Amino acid sequence: MANERTYPLLPCGELDEAISFYESLGFRKTYRQLRPNPYAVVALEDIQIHLFGMERFDPAQSYGSVIVVVPDPDSLYRDFAAGLRKRYGKLPVAGIPRILRPRKKYGTVSGFSVVDPGGNWLRVSRLGDSEEKDSPEKMEGLAQIINVAARLGDAHGDEALALKTLESGLARFTDAGAMELVRAYLYRAELAVRLKDQELAQSSLTAAKSLKLMDAESAAVADEFAHVTELVNQK
Questions:
Q1: Containing domain of residue 213, as a range?
Q2: The domain that contains 37 carries what CATH number?
Q3: 3-state class of 57 per DSSP?
Q4: pLDDT digits (tens, 9 = 90+) for 33-47
């Protein structure tokens, strides 16, 4: 057989709020009904998200999740981030809804995540990527700790445990290389922003900036520095 399609339905408490959120990402509403139940479809190129409204639904208790595979997740992230900045006046990285930036070398495939107003996760990854290329077994020391912390904070949404794990690694691997320390401090700053600890966020960013890197290393983390600096400084 060929040309089959499967469209899982994602729950949300306020359907119009969810539609508006997806429109800010660049989706367009292609279908909307009120009866017999609230239901809508939003689409971006070949990506279709089907939504349904549920009374008294708690987004924090949602288990909804969608895998979105695209050729260029970095470009899609930039488009999504620009739309969310326009909608909210800043990049939402904590609570519901939120967006988590691409993370490429912590044992996960290249991609990023979006949590919509219904608490549903859109897990965007690059077409053809495999976790085997950057598997955790190939990492050690602080790099492995960052990998574990990123999985806890980004994949599972447990920022508090991710921060605890990262703090433990920083205390244990004090002799780690400058590049690993920079990435650890930058991620600690990002986690602190999500946990609304502005003092820790600022001190972590300052610690990352204080470390000396080679020119090639500085170029490799330039985007991370820019992203975290935006988060720490946004109101």
A1: 139-235
A2: 3.10.180.10
A3: coil
A4: 988 889 999 999 989
